[in-house]
Amino acid sequence: MKRILSMLLCAAALVGCLSVAPASAVDTVDTDVTLRVGLTIGGANTFADPKLENVSGEPTGYTIGTMSGTSFSGGTSVSASQLTIKLVSGAFQVTDTATGKVLYTSAAGADHIAIHPNSDLTWFKGYQWHGDFVYRRASDGNITVINYVGLEDYVKGVLPYEIDPDWPAEAQKAQAVCARSFALGTSKHNEYYELCNTTNCQVYLGANRATEASDAAVDATQGEYLTYNGEPVIGYFFSSDGGATEDAVNVWGGDYPYLQGKEDPYETYDSSWSVTLTAEEIRQKLVSAGYSIGTVANVEVTKRTDTDNVNEVTVTDTTGKQVVIRRDDCRTVFGLDSIRYTITPNASASTAAMLPQSTSVKIQPSTHVVTVDGERVDPQGYNINGYNFYKLRDIAYILNGTDSQFNVTWDGANNRIVLTDGAAYQEVGGEMTSSASTAIKNVSESDSTIVLDGKTLSLTGYRINGNNYYKIRDVGSALGFSVDFDPETEIVLIGTANAGQDDTQDDPKDETPITNAASYTFNGSGWGHSVGMSQWGAYGMAQQGFGYEDILKFYFTGIEIAG
Fold first, then answer.
1. Mapping DSSP to helix (H, G, I), strand (E, B) and coil, where does residue 346 land?
2. Residue 481, exposed/middle/buried by CB under 10 A (0-12, 13-18, 19+)?
3. Whole-structure pTM value
4. Residue 1: closest CA among 536, 430, 382
5. Are 183 and 34 a contacting pair, CB within 8 Å?
6. Tens digit of pLDDT for each residue in 179-198?
7. Bridge partners for 218 per DSSP
8. How many CB atoms lie under 10 A from the CB of residue 81?
9. Residue 213's pLDDT is what?
């Protein structure tokens, strides 16, 4: 996937690593609030030796006390510019970092201390922060550091880490409203802090990257948040949808009317990506996610949403056992960038080579009669492991002139078979070869890519005597015509008049296709969970002259902006 922003910004843009349903909206909103943010920098949620330092040029010193709710109670004032805080013999000990002199020791067993800097900005772990700091004893005996910060200062510390501070002002304003709405409506951690500062909530790293433009976007939208039917709601966002956002119910399971998926015409960013996983890597990922599965024999998308995002993936092992993965797990279990992708099986070197006619591949010329809408046709085919396979050109030939017609062309440069649904078939010669030429000379699994109207298909196929043959049921499912099998007459029944008819009896056997592929390639676009506002879409809309309210009202259905 091509990424323009820094890796830090890109990681931040996911917001999401969210794997839970949206929290309930709060009843009322007070935007003059202090937020409690757990500082989980660099993936660590505790620090054995956390230090504070006043920012140069600002007043030095601190007041050490305690925190009740979000109200600071002062106690001891110290003049040192640099502090180190440790737990020593069960008490919090504050020393002057420069000299090592002990400046303050709490009562033994105290669960926290609070520190109010005299400076407006304070260095902590390489970042500059507004607000106060609470050092709380963690259950493992280490220290958890919590930043108590005003809402607007918090949003200023989020904005330049979630989108590029050089982006158009209207995109930054839209992001500011989302960030504020997210913060006001989220309480997903514990009694000591509502938010963390990672992509598990939204990235908050203080004032280091803040610019005049990013601060201006926050100031221009001060106190503004999203509402639906008069109630405040959470402003979920992500990096890129790759073409369409998604309903929250199809990602997290909760049905939220303002989080509805839609086609997105505004993203111009190339968010395409490709990931290839071996069958064993897929098995390991499933096991790591808590699923039980044997040797992987097939991986396929078995359900899509109305906006063509993946909603279900079925993995089948060599015993026929199936694992069905749904919703956002279709992204997270496989470690993919988005839920918008196709899956293509890839043959290994051993299977792409000549396949012996053994018990593993039982192949013979097909003896089954084929009819199209009741009329007999005679495509030349093979029965492989109990399934009927035919050439795509023969299928296109016998369907030409019907509502299910399609054209077939060959892209030799890319080893691709290109299908165009609804187009009249253009004959090239050699269609409907007689059964006299069905003697099997050589067989290998097909390694050709099949593309239907620009989208890659996953079809089970074999190359026999130099021609590609594909399972008729798979072709019918992809192109929308029905395929049944009458076991009494042994006739393959192709129907074009009723494409929605049940096609579960297309062949003598009825089971999930088994590809036994060595690996599977996931080709997709987009980055993130696809619920709410696309950041790259906001960028595109701002570039086209849309205001931030237009952007928000496009991505969030039926919302208003309050504050």
1. strand
2. buried
3. 0.68
4. 536
5. no
6. 999 999 887 678 889 999 98
7. none
8. 22
9. 97
